[in-house]
Each structure stands twice: as C-alpha cells, then as structure tokens.
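**Sequence, structure tokens**
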Amino acid sequence: IDLLRIRKELEIDATDFRDIINETTFKLIWGELGGDELKTAPRGFMKDHEDIDLIKKKMFVFKKYYTDNEVQNDDFIQNVAVTFKAILPFFDYMSEILTTDLNGESLI
C-alpha cells in the first residue's frame, strides 16, 4: 500500500521529488537513486508517463559508504551529521506522502 501511495504521488507530480534528489549537495553526498525496479510500468500506470522511471521503482534507496580512514577521522561525527542533514528533505517528503492521502488529508 505504501509503494502504491508513493507511485500515485509521483504519477500526479514528481517535481518536488526530482528537485530533492537532484539538488547539488544531496547528489554530491548521496549520488544516484538506487533500488530494484520493474521492467515495465506497474499495473494501472501508463508506460509512457513522463515519470515512469520513478514510478517503476520498487524501492527508493540511497547508500553512503565511508572508508576506514573517514570513520577514524576526528571529524567523522560532523561528517555524518552533514550527510544526514542532506537527506532530511527526502525523509520529510516520504513522510508527508505516507501520512496523507491523495487529497493531502492527514491519515494520522
């Protein structure tokens, strides 16, 4: 149900999502969106939708790897804080979607 809700939101308008994942600092820290995806459009979605690349996703994954030297560096904690601050807009966006219906009404 959560994945369908995310897909429906992206079908309506993926602009905010794309703005978040393409923001310069975000992209520099977190890179490209990963995660498994379908080979074709999910049932009920148009295969030629302009945002089908996002709608086909089965998961929305960002990974950040640290080297041993980075982890042992004195500024590691600050680096992690910057890293997580950069992904906060993504978490906020997903939280908003998953706590509202398609009309923007709260589900909580």
User: Anything to note?
Assistant: The chain has a mean pLDDT of 95. The CA atoms of residues 38 and 55 lie 9 Å apart. The chain is about 55% helix and 0% strand.
